[in-house]
Amino acid sequence: MEFLADNSMYVTLIIASLILAGLLLYLARIDARLRRLERER
Amino acid sequence: MKGLLIGGATVLGIVLGFWPAGLMKPKPAWWRWLAIATLAATVLLGLGVPTGGDFRSAIRTTMGRGDSAPLPVYASVVELRADGSAVLRDMTDTTITVSDAARIIADAGAGKGDRVILGLSFNRGKAAFIARRHLFTNPLFTLPLIPGLEERARNIYFHVPCAWLVQVAWFIACCYALLSIRKRRVEDDVRASAAAALGAVFCVLATLTGAIWAKFNWGEFWNWDPRQTAIFVVMVIYGAYFALRSAIQNDEQRARVSAVYLLLMLIPVVFFLFIYPRMVDGLHPGAGSLESQPLDSATMRPAAPPTAGQKDSPAPEKTAVPAPEKKDAGPILSSDPDALNPIKQVIFSLSFFSFSLLFFWILNVRVRISLLERRREMSRAATTGIVPGPIAEDIVRPS
């Protein structure tokens, strides 16, 4: 925690990667829905 | 100028979200490349433009931290001395002799007349700067060092657009809810619910990123700051929407009831995201209390103690922008042009634009998948003769 408080750049990196991870997770979910549709064909 | 830039980027992002191809057809290649390019530019500029403060902001920053971790200071080299120190002049024309700087500047291949960003520690006992490392020589652009925020100031390019899209998503969902009530098309219900689903994703992201930011600026992950309270309430409103939808089996009924819910909740959502955080005291910039709270120049904390409801969490260092004399609307909406430096304005506008395009891209894919699912369901119902749920006509129009 102290390291993060002194090196504030890493806090920003954590936040930016969290947004990326969240959107990728959502992408994976809608991708799974699409694959289910394609399998049913 | 600032309003035009940020407002224009926001509006353009939303316009390009609907045009060309709308939400139900694939976006053209140029559109997708524009989204990728602007997103990449947002990440590169948002994380890559170096921070370089002046001596004064560096001193103020060390006061908030109480240790000697190096801080980026942007200055031009006036003179290199034989004793290893160097005379540096920062952007406010403050000239200071910094020990150890000459060696570090020379090692980096820079010299007299160059503009450098050096990592400087401030020794409070001696009231002197000591150079620790070389960071940049002659950077094209620099971001200001904001005491209390430091590199966390960059979060504004990632956290704020997420929170903004929460509102945009609800508004778009409301537009399609209105259409769905008037025209009773399946497509409108699909678009409304997809927009709300994506809005919920951004709501969670804005809350989580805000909580991490809060930990390092306000001391706790969760402070019940008005904006934190508000986003929590909005998250519950979003959650109730999906609970409502999953509780209704019949397609047409679900479309109508959930559309009415979206429209009914528009005013609470706008109230909690835009009005409530400005009415009451809080930690976020632009909160109601800041207009009358001068900042103590030594600690960069509000001179008056914060509201009684707060625990022993640190005072809002996030507000450590130059003490607001007029009504403080926060750095984005403030009429003071210095509240957000021009480079930050450009990156901020870019981030709003690119996040909007990303939002609409995901929304577009999501709507197309949902429509495909609906069509598949209907064609299966037609071939097997099994209609999902009771027939809508009987329930909706009993006459």
Succession of helices and strands of chain A: HH
Query: Span from first to last CA of chain A?
Result: 52 Å
Radius of gyration of chain B: 26 Å
The percentage of residues in β strands of chain A lies in under 5%
Helix content of chain A: over 70%
Give the tally of structural domains of chain B: 2
Average pLDDT level of chain A: 89
Q: What is the number of domains of chain A?
A: 1
Q: Main beta sheet of chain B: strand number and arrangement?
A: 5 strands, antiparallel
Shape of chain B: elongated
Poorly predicted runs of chain B: 290-326, 391-396
List SSEs of chain B in N-to-C order.
HHHEEEHEEHHHHHEEHHH
The residue fraction in helices of chain B comes out at 40-55%
Q: State which percent range the strand residues of chain B make up.
A: 5-15%
* Low-confidence runs of at least 5 consecutive residues of chain A: none
What order do the strands of the largest sheet of chain B run in, or round the barrel if closed? 3-2-1-4-5
What is the helix tally of chain B? 12
Helix count of chain A equals 2
What does this protein structure show overall?
The complex is a heterodimer of chains A (41) and B (399). With 41 residues, chain A is mainly alpha-helical. Chain A has one domain. Chain A has helices at 2-6, 8-40. The longest helix of chain A is centred in the middle third of the chain and has 33 residues, at 8-40. The relative contact order of chain A is 0.09. The model of chain A has no long low-confidence stretch (mean pLDDT 89). In chain B, 54% of the residues lie in helices and 11% in strands. Chain B is built from twelve helices and seven strands. In chain B, the strands form two sheets. In chain B, strands 3-2-1-4-5 form a five-stranded antiparallel beta sheet. In chain B, strands 6-7 form a two-stranded antiparallel ribbon. The longest helix of chain B is centred in the last third of the chain and has 43 residues, at 342-384.
